[in-house]
Amino acid sequence: MGTEITKDDMQRVFDEAKTPHKYGIVIKPAEGVMLDCPSVFRHNDTWFMIYVCMNKVGYETHLASSADLLKWTELGIILPFSADGQWDRWQAAGGVALVDYEWGTPPKINTYDGKYWLSYLGGALQGYETDPLSIGMAWTKMPDQAQPWHRYENNPVLSRMQPDCRPFEEATLYKSFVMHDPKGTLEHPFIMYYNGKQFHKNIERIGMAVSDDMVHWTRHGTGPVIDNNVGISGDPQIVRMGDLWVMFYFGHVWKRKAFDTFACSRDLVNWTKWDGPHLIEPSEPWDKTFAHKPWLIKHDGVVYHFYCAVGDQGRAIALATSKDLR
User: What's the DSSP call for residue 80?
Assistant: First the structure.
């Protein structure tokens, strides 16, 4: 079969993942705060969302819970600012790792070494995504509790200062997604996808790294796996849909505003980009500026598409679905 992805393959994924019904804002920001980057998982018969909260200083990571994926209760901070002098003093924006990726099954999170994990972008400077940012790892044994996760002591695990850093990521590293591949497709059990930015170019591309133990990472390949030549391609999420790997990600600048789209692969390395209608795009007052940064799950026959919405309610977490649930 090789790595070929047909137009029919791509259309099948779009038809399966599209969410034309916008439910609206599910977590609204407090005054002076911006919310970002939802990642949703199932644990002990409850839904949880890890998401990012940005105030005037920097990013921290929060937790919320839900019984039905529609009404969410904010629980508190799980990755706060760190101690003075640390590499991640003022930036700690995390997303859950090792989620079950089979489409249509509950997205439970798995352990490694007896721990639940998240990966996060971190930085020492205040402000909105102030360069340089690097990637760190954190863990907990209680992912349903609003208490600080333990940072890996030898963070960051990926940074622009490492000798295998590639040109497309030499300025800063952004959002990451870490998955477990039990088949060892790339001869390593853990794979990370993340977007990075190049010096003197406002372009973000998605690249890969691999690991045997979740904390020592080696970059895979000589360049990015998703590159749209201009603007941003970022915030990847990987699912397994039938015989295909699907990467949901967002785009900005190379088409109008900010939107969510996808790419498909058979080997986790070579990706075919969808060039049809967006999975989601600005259309409502609450997401009139940006509708982007996807996290999709399918539960009980309904696709839930969580995303960051920027509009008349600030920067918030919103939801669109494959069926009208309002």
Answer: -
Tell me, rounded to whole angstroms, the distance of Cα 60 from its chain centroid: 15
Q: Assess if residue 161 is contained within a domain.
A: yes
Residue pair 194/206 in contact by the 8 Å Cβ criterion: yes
CATH number of the domain where residue 240 is located: 2.115.10.20
Q: How confident is the model at residue 212, as a pLDDT? A: 97
Rounded-to-integer distance, Cα 163 and Cα 165, Å: 6
pLDDT in tens, 157-169: 999 999 999 999 9
217: exposed, middle or buried (C-beta count within 10 Å: 0-12, 13-18, 19+)? buried
Query: Are 17 and 248 in contact, with CB atoms under 8 Å apart?
Result: yes
> In this predicted model, what pLDDT tens digit does every residue of 200-215 receive, in sequence order?
888 999 999 999 999 9
Domain range enclosing 190? 7-321
Does the pTM exceed 0.90?
yes
Residue 242 lies in a domain: yes
Is there a domain that residue 1 lies in?
no
Q: Residue 82, Cα to own-chain centre: how many angstroms? A: 22
Count structural domains, the chain: 1
Q: What is the pLDDT of residue 1?
A: 46
Which residue, among 261, 262, 320, has the nearest Cα to 287 in the 3D structure? Answer: 320
Chain length of the chain: 326
Find how far residue 304's CA is from the centre of its chain. 15
Q: Where are the beta strands (DSSP E) in 5-133?
A: 21-27, 34-43, 46-54, 59-66, 72-79, 91-96, 116-123
User: Does 182 map to a domain?
Assistant: yes
Is the backbone peptide bond immediately before 156 cis, with ω within 30 degrees of 0? yes
